[in-house]
């Protein structure tokens, strides 16, 4: 999916580009490989203006913001011109986007319930596609899109940007330490990941409506589920509690969840391990708890969330993505390591720095390399399909009040 193939000349070509009437893709010239990818961003709400357009504009050697889908622009240049001072084409219908042969990549940043339909139609039109989370409402839809992309030789990329959160990068560096390191936690026996907030009322957006793929589990849940699967792989059992805790809005739109992913001895780790994933909507504290990781030799505790979203919202020019300090986590939010001494009588404590700044831009760099060079996807479509499967199983567990066996692949 999106992987290039070497020709007899040694050049790479992508079977999703320039397919002729016989269904055979010609070899890409070096000029074509170096050409910036024409992009259309569907939707100019929070997702489009915060998480997609800035990165497309910040990487002009890789992407060109060709156009956006904005159904009701209030000015000739639309929201992108008002925010960033550039004026891409503005399309008011998906049909117009798909009919434009200049567009190579479509970014789906529209409301959740449209992701499957818009991604499918874009693939059917011969476009590469980046889909914001949640990629679909069901795992069957995700599998269908994956099959369609493979059939057409197109890149289908899930937007799991929070693999490049500063706190997650710091956590992965810790977990990957060899056991010989004095900072090693030993064998992980419990992993706790939070994305808590305090919000008593509704925001009054489409997210409050009982539409497919809406609710906190599909929203924040897909991020922390993806991170957990990336660290530990597929669990064998799952127990979940999903609810509308506040009792406001539609009862079917959940605002809080707790998921227990069960890993038996000998699966992901030598000891039985439980991953506890939680998003609470009435958590009154600052900073919020982010990670608690318990190992046989120590514990890692982390507060606060990655600051890239806040920085992107306030950013006036896309070049700010490369400015010193972008994505860097304040030292006061670095995690804490506690270790038991060899004689098991004393606990030592030290800071665990978030050395690498958050870097959502790396996802876009990889996306361009996949399309132009046949590079391997850093986030594979099958991985995000598994995330949606876990969401479905969590809803099933909560509805039936029982632990669910996770099917083997």
From TrEMBL:
InterPro entries: Gfo/Idh/MocA-like_OxRdtase_C, Gfo/Idh/MocA-like_OxRdtase_N, Gfo/Idh/MocA_oxidoreduct, NAD(P)-bd_dom_sf. The chain crosses the membrane at residues 36-59. It comes from the Eukaryota. Keywords: Membrane, Oxidoreductase, Transmembrane, Transmembrane helix. Residues 183-404 form the Gfo/Idh/MocA-like oxidoreductase C-terminal domain. Residues 37-156 form the Gfo/Idh/MocA-like oxidoreductase N-terminal domain. Belongs to the Gfo/Idh/MocA family. This is Oxidoreductase. It comes from Hohenbuehelia grisea.
């Amino acid at each position: 999916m999106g992987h290039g193939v070497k020709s007899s000349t040694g050049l790479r070509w992508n079977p999703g580009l320039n397919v002729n009437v016989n269904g055979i893709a010609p070899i890409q010239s070096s000029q074509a490989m170096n050409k910036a990818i024409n992009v259309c961003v569907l939707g100019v709400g929070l997702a489009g203006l915060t998480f997609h357009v800035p990165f497309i504009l910040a990487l002009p050697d890789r992407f060109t913001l060709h156009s956006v889908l904005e159904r009701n622009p209030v000015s000739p240049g639309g929201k992108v011109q008002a925010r960033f001072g550039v004026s891409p084409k503005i399309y008011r219908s998906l049909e117009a986007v798909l009919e434009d042969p200049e567009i190579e990549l479509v970014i789906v940043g529209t409301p959740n319930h449209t992701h499957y339909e818009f991604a499918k139609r874009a693939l059917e039109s011969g476009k590469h596609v980046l889909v914001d989370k949640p990629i679909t409402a069901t795992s069957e839809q995700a599998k269908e899109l994956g099959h369609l992309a493979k059939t057409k030789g197109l890149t289908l990329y899930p937007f799991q940007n929070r693999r490049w959160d500063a706190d997650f990068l710091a956590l992965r560096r810790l977990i990957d330490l060899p056991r010989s390191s004095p900072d090693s936690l030993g064998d992980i026996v419990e992993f706790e990941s939070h994305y808590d907030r305090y919000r008593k009322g509704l925001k009054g957006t489409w997210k409050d409506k009982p539409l497919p793929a809406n609710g906190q589990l599909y929203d924040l849940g897909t991020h922390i589920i993806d991170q957990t699967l990336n660290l530990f792989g597929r669990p064998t059992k799952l127990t979940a509690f999903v609810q509308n805790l506040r009792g406001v809005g539609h009862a079917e739109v959940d605002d809080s969840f707790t998921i227990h992913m069960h890993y038996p001895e000998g699966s992901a780790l030598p000891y039985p391990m439980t991953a506890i994933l939680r998003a609470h909507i009435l958590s009154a504290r600052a900073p919020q708890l982010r990670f608690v990781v318990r190992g046989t030799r120590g514990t890692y505790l982390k507060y606060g969330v990655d600051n890239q979203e806040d920085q992107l919202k306030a950013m006036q020019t896309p070049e700010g993505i490369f400015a010193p300090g972008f994505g860097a986590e304040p030292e006061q939010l670095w995690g804490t390591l506690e270790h038991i001494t060899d004689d098991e009588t004393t606990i030592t404590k030290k800071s665990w720095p978030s050395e690498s700044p958050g870097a959502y831009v790396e996802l876009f760099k990889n996306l361009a390399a996949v399309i132009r060079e046949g590079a391997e996807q850093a986030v594979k479509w099958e991985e995000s399909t598994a995330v949606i499967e876990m969401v479905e199983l969590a809803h099933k567990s909560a509805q039936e009040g029982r632990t669910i066996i996770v099917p083997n692949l």
